[in-house]
Amino acid sequence: MRDDKLVRLIKISLLSVMAFLLMYIELPLPIFPEFLKIDISDLPALLGAFALGPIAGVLIELFKNILHGLLATKTAFVGELANFLVGSVLVLVSGYIYKARKSKGGAIVGLLTGVVCMSAFAALLNYFLILPLYESVLGFPITAVIGMGSKINPNIKDLNSFILWMIVPFNLLKGVVISAMTLALYKSVSPILHKENIEQKYKDSQQATNRK
Predict the structure, then answer these.
(1) Pairing of β 27-28 and β 37-38
(2) For residue 207, is it within any domain?
(3) Is residue 204 part of a domain?
(4) Is residue 27 helix, strand or coil?
(5) In Å, how far are 84, 123, 143 from 34, measured between CA atoms?
(6) C-alpha–C-alpha distance, residues 169 and 21, integer Å
(7) Stated pTM of the model
(8) Which domain range does residue 76 map to?
(9) How many domains does the chain have?
(10) How distant, in Å, are the alpha carbons of 52, 53, 183 from that of 103?
(11) What pLDDT is attached to residue 201?
(12) Could you tell me the pLDDT band of residue 1, with boundaries at 50, 70 and 90?
């Protein structure tokens, strides 16, 4: 008998490895400080959240950051913690809305809501936890972060304005990019992620037919 839990775990593991590998592809943008780089490693987690459920998406976020923290961290797990928490908000919100309304419209609403929630959460998280951790754990002063931002945008004068003009726009842009890629890819990837489920439903229907 096919072990559904094992198949599900294998899918989550494969998507986690894909997400981990995508973390190495980072795109710096001149409108943001050097340490804010766009990566698309949340893409496999979103695909997993849509196909396997929002909890699966969070597990993918967790496993990819554990792998990155063990094999490639440059921030003593602070960056991985931020990536996990912020990414989890995106996949949880988007995944739950899509689960309740499985349609293209539901996916769009879920992704847009997820991006807004992620950006708001990232602002609070950076203000109260992540930037203070960078300062205390890595010796990267918040004043230096603000200085890097003010060189790009003169409206940045303090931590509040840095969050407003850098952290929020960065996460909005990143979220929109990943959401667009998710919408473009999910239809083609979904049959692969649901393959075993489709086959099992077919077998069950055949067995039911044979019993009649």
Answers:
(1) antiparallel
(2) no
(3) no
(4) strand
(5) 20, 18, 15
(6) 25
(7) 0.90
(8) 4-197
(9) 1
(10) 15, 14, 11
(11) 45
(12) very low
